[in-house]
Amino acid sequence: MSESRKLLNVYSEIGRLKTVLLHRPGKELENLVPDYLERLLFDDIPYLDLARREHDNFAELLRGNGVEVLYLEDLATESIMDSNTRECFIEDFLDEGNVVGIGTREVLKEYFEKFNNKELIDKLMAGVRKSEISKLINRSLVDLVDTNYPFVLDPMPNLYFTRDPFATIGNGIALNRMKTHVRNRETIFANYIFQNHPRFKNANVPTWFDRKENSPLEGGDILVLNSKVIAVGISARTDAAAIEKFAEKILYSDQPFETVLAFDIPKKRAFMHLDTVFTMVDFGKFTIHPEVEGSLTVYAITRSDRFYGELFIEKEESTLQNILQKYLEVDKITLIRCAGGNAIDAAREQWSDGSNTLAIAPGEVIVYARNYVTNKLLEEHGITTHVISCSELSRGRGGPRCMSMPLIREDL
Ligand SMILES: NC(=O)NCCC[C@H](N)C(=O)O
């Protein structure tokens, strides 16, 4: 198959971006209420209208740089055209959305009948308020018990962080199992897209991880450093056990990857995923949150040369710079510290994803405007920064890399 016709092709973090998956923030953001913010993994409530304008500018910037922008909501819609598929999709959603009352399920299914496929996808993403349903049928105890909870189906406000529910690696995907129940339903979309969407269904997309696994793996923790080395964070969201499963599968596949570097980072909200504290911006150049450097342990996972199918795991005993230099086989590694390492500025900019950049080509990244101290430093290191405004988008605790899932990057 020719390069341009490949459906999935990600062998680096920085190869020129050709196709990316986004989600335009929708009504789900208007179902965020203070009482449930923490559970829904938000710290504040974005103003939807402005969030959309900021997101549209992000998409426009990508298109202006020759990137094909696909939207999750469109691919999902095109994946449920067949009426049986649509029905199964709704069932899966209700199952995993914890809608267990028999009467409530019935009423919801009836309610969904009036929506066309696109409207249905938007509605499932937005969630269903109790007040939208005129009458609830009482068939089971759960239907009868009245609670103050305002939703019959929870909203999915984290969907615009397309980086996390699945991840493109090589010519396949890790279909993730998310750490929190609240984000796990997001992976249903990818499941249907890769099985049913006309663009992918006959492609037999290889999967390096499955959403039914027991331990969590999230896309923000996975960085494809080059065609031989993948970095994965052992983080607040991704477990070591999941990384082993993933490594086994990908290292014994037909892909060129030889090493998975597991970065053990502190398990706290401000660090969340590996890409919250560490992203690649150019050959041998990375952003990093200074607080993570000292406490970082790295394990190198390779194929065992004694037993086929087994892994060899070694704890690296050197500095991050030396470890990266060794595995990436480059002369020099430059770590660009968030806000230059100044304790106050670094903590402040880190909170709004100062280290979370999206590379659209080697040495060319998209960054948030508010992280101006870090952005200036990037420029001083020869990196071109494309700056986007983010006063609403940043309230969800994710940056440009978190808001994008590359499907195709040019090989380096
Ligand atoms: N890769 C990322 O760091 N994604 C950001 C996810 C933010 C979202 N509110 C979450 O807590 O999951």
Automatic annotation (TrEMBL):
<dbReference type="InterPro" id="IPR003876">
    <property type="entry name" value="Arg_deiminase"/>
</dbReference>
<keyword id="KW-0056">Arginine metabolism</keyword>
<comment type="pathway">
    <text>Amino-acid degradation; L-arginine degradation via ADI pathway; carbamoyl phosphate from L-arginine: step 1/2.</text>
</comment>
<dbReference type="GO" id="GO:0005737">
    <property type="term" value="C:cytoplasm"/>
</dbReference>
<dbReference type="GO" id="GO:0019546">
    <property type="term" value="P:L-arginine deiminase pathway"/>
</dbReference>
<keyword id="KW-0378">Hydrolase</keyword>
<dbReference type="GO" id="GO:0016990">
    <property type="term" value="F:arginine deiminase activity"/>
</dbReference>
<feature type="active site" description="Amidino-cysteine intermediate">
    <location>
        <position position="402"/>
    </location>
</feature>
<dbReference type="Pfam" id="PF02274">
    <property type="entry name" value="ADI"/>
</dbReference>
<protein>
    <recommendedName>
        <fullName>Arginine deiminase</fullName>
        <ecNumber>3.5.3.6</ecNumber>
    </recommendedName>
</protein>
<comment type="similarity">
    <text>Belongs to the arginine deiminase family.</text>
</comment>
<keyword id="KW-0963">Cytoplasm</keyword>
